[in-house]
Design goal:
The protein has one domain (14-101). 71% of the residues lie in helices and 0% in strands. By secondary structure, the protein is mainly alpha-helical. α1 runs parallel beside α3 (75-101) and α2 crosses α3 (75-101). Residues 1-45 form the Transposase putative helix-turn-helix domain.
Length: 102
């Protein structure tokens, strides 16, 4: 199998640059809010099951109702952020449990 790559460069205008920066900051905010919620949930009940990306995505409308400016964000990027957070959270506990079991 041959792998091919394409090198690409974009030149966004000022409005597009602003939207890109805002979307990065919205994703950062959602990551921190969801992570804080998951950590608090674990501290309150360590036996609780992990939330999956679907469950976190269902919490996005509630988060948007508290923070109205979050409605400007691209929803798919927020969903990908939730998915990445769930995967990182699972890997963290998988690594932590393997260290404590040794």
């Amino acid at each position: 199998m041959t792998l091919k790559g394409i090198r690409l460069r974009i030149y966004p205008n000022k409005e597009q640059q602003l939207k890109i920066k805002l979307n990065f900051s919205y994703n950062w905010f959602v990551w921190n809010q969801m992570l804080n919620m998951m950590i608090t949930r674990y501290e309150n009940n360590p036996q609780a099951t992990f939330l999956n990306a679907f469950a976190l995505n269902n919490l996005l409308p509630t988060l948007k109702s508290y923070y109205h400016w979050l409605k400007e964000a691209e929803i798919t990027s927020l969903q990908v952020t939730n998915h990445d957070l769930v995967e990182a959270y699972k890997k963290f506990f998988k690594k932590t449990r393997s260290i404590t079991q040794v």
